[in-house]
Each structure stands twice: as C-alpha cells, then as structure tokens.
Amino acid sequence: MANDVLTYDDEVILEEQGFDDHFHEHEHGDHFKSNFVNHYVFSMDHKIIARQFLITGMVWALIGAGMSIIFRLQLGFPEESLTWIKPLLGKWIAVDATTGIGTLMPEFYYALVTMHGTIIVFFVLTAGLSGTFSNLLIPLQLGARDMASPFLNMLSYWFFFLASVIMFYSLFLSTGPFSGGWTAYPPLSALPQASTGSGTGMTLWLMSLTFFVVSVLLGGINYITTVLNLRTKGMSLWRMPLTIWAFFVTAILGLLSFPVLVSGFFMLICDRMLGTSFFLSEIFIEGAALPNVGGSPILYQHLFWFLGHPEVYIIILPAMGIVSEVLSVHARKPIFGYKAMVFSILAIGFLSFIVWAHHMFMSGVNPFISNFFVVFTLIIAVPSAVKVFNWITTLYKGNIRLNTPMLFAIGFVSMFISGGLTGIFLGNSAIDIQMHDTYFVVAHFHIVMGVAAFFGMFAGIYHWFPKMYARFMNETLGKIHFWITMIGAYAVFWPMHYLGIAGVPRRYYSFNTFNSFDDFTALNQFITIAAIVVFAAQVLFVINFFYSIWKGKKMTTKNPWKATTLEWTTPIHTGHGNWEGNLPVVHRWAYDYGKDGIDYVPQHIPLTEEEKAQEGSH
Amino acid sequence: MEISIKNRINPQLFGLWTALASITMMFGALTSAYIVRQAAGNWLEFRMPDLFIVSTVVILLSSVTLQVAYNGYKNQKEGLYKGGLVLSFILGLAFLILQYNAWMMLFNMGVDMKINPSGSFLYVITGVHAGHILGGITALIVALLHAFTLPFEYSDKRKNRFQLVLHYWHFVDLLWVYLFVFLLMTR
C-alpha cells in the first residue's frame, strides 16, 4: 500500500488555488526590506526569532548541563581533587594548602543545583523549546505571513535575552548566584542574610525571572492571537496539525499561570525590601529573632506551584506536539486518533491547573485537601495514556523511516512512559511522603520532563533543521548522538530510582557521614560517569548543529520529508513573508498519509471528485 | 503588518484581551492569597479610608468620559473627542492622587506596610493596580498626542487604536471596582 506518489506542482497550485492577500502589491510599503542589524539582530521575522531562541537556549543548555557535571563529580567522587577546575570556578574550589586537594564549596554546590534547575526549566525547556518551535511553526503551518504582532514577538526575544544577561551576570557575583533551590522558597529566598546567595544573587534571580515572565507573556499573547486570527483560508481549527494545538494550549497555560508567579514575586520583593511579612514568621537568625510575625511560607508554595505545575506541561506539551507530527511523517501514517489527541491536550491543560498541591504533600497541607489533589493527579494519567497509546498505534504497521528525528521521537515515547509510570507512584500522597525528598523524585521528573522534553526538542531540531537552515544535519553524527543519549540518560536516571527507594535523600552535598549510604558509592560513581558521557554526546550535537548550518547537505527540494503540512510549501530559502506569491489554501487535515494508496497528500491539494463525494456522504 | 484574512475581530484587540486575561489571573492570585492568609488568623482589622469611595467615583467617571470621547471620534464630533479625552486624562491623574492620599491616611492611622499582612496586602493590591492605571495613563498620553497633533479625520486604523485604549481603561476601571468591593467584603 501507499506506494503511489501523487505528483503535483506547488507553483501551479499556489498560483491557481492560492489566496491572494495583496502582500506584494505595496512595493514601497514593504516592511521587510532589511539590513544586517534588523535582519539578524533586531529581527521581526518569526523564523529568525525562532533561531535566536534556539541558539540562546542551546548556550544555556550547555551551561546548565555543565553545572550538573560539576555537582555530579562532587556526588560521585567526593574524595577526588577538583583543583583542575579552579581556573573556572575560582574561590568556589577550596584547595587544602598541605595536600593540594581541591573541594567544591558546599555553598556553591547548592548554587549550582539551583541554577541548573532554573536554567533548564525556564531558559532551555520553556524559552528554548516553546519559544523556538512556536515561533517557527505557528505562522508556517497555519499559512500566515508572520505573527499577529511581529514587534511584540521581537520584544519577547529581547526580554528573554535581558533575563539571560542578568542571570548570567549573577553567576559571577562574589557572593555567588542564588542557592536556595529553583523553587525559591522563603525564608531562604526572602531573607538576604539567610545564605550567601540570598542577597544580591536572589535579587538578580528575581529581576531575571520577572523579565523572563514578560517575555513568556508577550510570546503567549502573540501565539494565541495568531492561532485564532491569522489562519489561512480553509485552515479550520480541526485541520490544524497537532504541533499547533500543543503550542496553542501551552501558550494559554503560560498566559494564565505565569502572572500568578509574578504575584508571588511581588510579595517576595516586599518581604525582602520593604519589611513586610507575607511569607515570614518567627524566624531566628544566629540567635536573634526577626521582627516578622504572621507570614506563611506555605502561601508562597501555593503561588509558586500554581505556576509550577502548569509549567511542567508548558515544557512537555510542545514536545508532545512535535513528537506527534514527527512520528506521523516518518511512519507515513496518519496520526492515530487525531481528535482524541486534541482532547487529551486540552484535558491535560485543564487538569494541570488543579493539581498543584501534589508538590506540597510534605509541606503540612491538610490530608483531606491532599486527597482531592491525589485524585486529580491520577486522572492526568488518563489523557497521558491516551496519547501514549495513540503514538504507539501510529507506529503500528507504519512504513517507518528510522532517521534521527524519528529515533528521538520514539525515544520520547519511551522516556515518557518510564517517567510517567513513576508519576503514578508519586501522585499518591501516601507514597509521596516516603519518596518525596529522595532521589526517586529526581529520577521521576528528570526522565518525564527533562529527558523527554529534550528528546522532543531534538526530534524537532533534526526534523525542521532543513526548514531553518536549508541544509540537513549529519545523519551519522545524529544517530551516534541519539544512541549515546538514549542509553546514557537511562543509565543516569534509572539507578536513581533504587537510590530513592533505599531512602537516599536528594539535595545533599555529601553522604560521607551516613554509613547507611556507603553501599551506593559505586552506583553514584556510575551515574556520574554516565552523565559525563551523555554530556559529551550533547557537545557532539552542538558541533553537528553548527557544522551543518554552513556545511551540511543542501536541501534540494521543498519538501524533503514528504510531509503534508504547509511549512514545506514555502521556498527552500524562505524570506520574510514566507510565501512568495499567494498564500496556500487548505483543503484537508494535516495527516493524509497513505490515503487511497497514495503516499501523502499535502494540505493545500484540493479534494478529488471521489473525496468530495465521500465528504458529502458523511 | 498586513493581515492575511478579513477577521471579524481586530487581532490587536484580541491580543489585548488575552493580556487582560493574564492580568486578571495576577489579581486573582493576589486576592486568593489574601483570603487564604486572612483565614489563618492574626489579622489586623481596620477601617478602609472613605477616600477610596471618592476615587471609585472618579475612575468610573473617567470611563464614562473616555467612552464619550470614543463615540465622539466615531461620530466625527471633534469637540466631544478631544474634550472627553482631556477629561479622562485629568480624572485618571486625579484617581492616582486620591489613591496616594488614601495610602497616606492609612499610614497616619498607623497601618503601615509592615505592621500586619492585612495592611501589606492592601498596599500591594492597590499599589499593583495603581501601576496598571499608570500604564493606562501612558496610553492616554499617546491618544492625546494623536488627538492634538494629527489632523482630525476619521480612519478605521485610528478608531481601532483608540479602541485598544478604551478597552484597557474600562478594564482597569472594572478591576478597581472588583478590588474595592473585595476589600470591603473581606474586612
């Protein structure tokens, strides 16, 4: 089946069937005449902005992952000398004058863990993932010239850049960056005297994250408005690719949850600077009582996790959308259960707002209220399982091309299953109370939203790289990257489940003083070595990425993957405005693969007479 | 940029509404936090300054005058347009001055920022709201510049731009009414 190939000529279809929006009639009024600065730097072209988000995200990913290597060295090899890393970390490596052995300062260990979380969650997997692909794909797949407001879109990137600069600067403070955990719980975050990083480090952290939220909101407003208002003719909501559905719901989640975090930040800033007591009560520092009375640190946790939980879906939904698209294209089969996929995205989006307290079972939340959150948390397993089954069914009997994007998409499904199952353990408050402060939780969230989201991102980068740079990434390097990452990531995080079940607590600098954890020394060394190997594979990916931008195999046809979606109807070197002449008009959904024995039928191909008859008979 | 397809609603206005949804969430969070914190006890009771009633009246009036200005522009009545706009601007400034005086009254009553979360919440909620009014006043200044520097003529583009200011201003006005009623009811 599906061996026939439909032949069509894009130029002719766009000329005859396309929709003329008079885009090129205003020759003098062309907004898109550009020089170097406003083409590559202050660009308003959504495709350039997408690349800016991607490359900034990659820089952050290297920094964030590099930090994890340093603290993994401490955890795996606490006795070894780290003097060799002193040129990079300076005074944060304390060198013993007599033995010459360098040790990582505990304060900086916590700063590294905090920054690792903040950077990966916000700067890489929110800005780098949803910022890149929402920007790239929303206008291209919907048949729009650009975003609803290209200017706000540009601002969105530059606010992110500003947030990045501030956070980066905070890494070099003499007192170190913030070190109280990426969740920034008070009192560590509220009292400048609480720890070295709680002073200037925390102030910069708050500034940076506030600018970051502005960036997310500006982006989100644009994505939502574009999806609802700028779709080309014929692109009804039910014809949108699943990528767009995922980005759309992601944007709504961000728009509704980030402002709540900002409210928490306002109160935190007041506690820090104006002496209020929103989150502080009866605290003693070095024997002296603080005047603050009547605040509640739990209140901050509620505000934080009201963002924090939707945030994990802000991270995973775009990855899910990308994976759905990549699986369908490279399995040469329509996505299984398109409507079920859309409804499960919507269900996950809705449920994500009413489960936040499952992060707080250990905070002394009323057990009756906990029950409510347990039930809703477990219900999330239903739409998630629907998605997993649909992905697997999409693969079933597919004509699978095992290229790099496909491998990463399949890897995503594997990771999502492994991490999702432990989520069912942790969603139960009774089990969570035992597991919460152990490595079990570290294993769970790293697999399900860290590694899985990275896999979705890699699938997207390998798949849409030709659209971004008109060249392909190197397949061999890509496959090496995949297999090392796939096996290595499991090697890093799978053993952590056992550590967690055995009760090894997370957030500890060293286990030297606990005899009960001596048995795990070798396991910790294994994890550290695996982490270093995986990190090396990511460096390989970055080399492949930049090498391929300039030297990669050139793209010779518009639609190399033989995909149905509209981004592949644009010219190989896509200019600002995306389509040279008319906009494509959409006649069908995004997944006509293998229909009536034809390999694929793009969305802008008109219905045949038979298809029209079929549509009529429904 | 050019819009691909005729839309029933102006995308910029739609974008503004999504932004308003986001602002609503922020104040929703602040007022929810207020309720949660109040339920925990140790809550200082005090009387809200009556001046807030005056400021409520002022901000409601400013919405009316801005609507008059907008209708004036649509019906090409230059006097109503310019007069309404100036009046709205003055009323908006008056609102901020009244808020400031109300804060000073509170402060002189002994309810300062630090004394108890009940006072802190009041300052933060009304303060963040005042920040949003300030944003509205900036938009009004832009609208005033348009009104007094550009020749008076009707165009859809200018109407749409004015509509953005109008909707935002009505929103921060209604937001204040919500906050004021909320603060009164949850004493």
TrEMBL record, chain A:
Domain Cytochrome oxidase subunit I profile: 31-609
Keyword DNA-binding belongs to the record: no
Localization of this protein: Membrane
Molecular function GO terms recorded: cytochrome-c oxidase activity; heme binding
Pfam families, per the entry: COX1
Keyword annotations of the record: Electron transport, Heme, Iron, Membrane, Metal-binding, Respiratory chain, Transmembrane, Transmembrane helix, Transport
SUPFAM superfamilies to which the protein is assigned, alphabetical: Cytochrome c oxidase subunit I-like
GO biological process: aerobic respiration; electron transport coupled proton transport; respiratory electron transport chain
Sequence intervals crossing the membrane: 53-73, 108-130, 151-172, 204-230, 242-269, 312-329, 336-356, 368-386, 407-427, 439-462, 482-502, 522-547
Lineage: superkingdom: Bacteria
Assigned GO CC terms: membrane
Membrane topology, as annotated: Multi-pass membrane protein
Statement: the UniProt record of this protein carries the keyword Membrane: yes
Family per similarity comment: Belongs to the heme-copper respiratory oxidase family.
Stated name of the protein: Cytochrome-c oxidase
Natural source organism: Portibacter lacus
Gene of this entry: ctaD
UniProtKB/TrEMBL annotation, chain B:
GO CC annotation, single: plasma membrane
Gene Ontology molecular-function annotations: cytochrome-c oxidase activity
Heme-copper oxidase subunit III family profile domain span: 14-187
GO biological process: aerobic electron transport chain
Cellular localisation: Cell membrane; Membrane
CDD domains for this protein: Heme_Cu_Oxidase_III_like (cd00386)
Membrane topology designation: Multi-pass membrane protein
Keywords: Membrane, Transmembrane, Transmembrane helix
Main location class: membrane
Record field: transmembrane: 12-36, 51-73, 80-100, 120-145, 166-185
Domain of life: Bacteria
Pfam families xrefs: COX3
Family membership: Belongs to the cytochrome c oxidase subunit 3 family.
Protein known as: Heme-copper oxidase subunit III family profile domain-containing protein
Organism name: Portibacter lacus
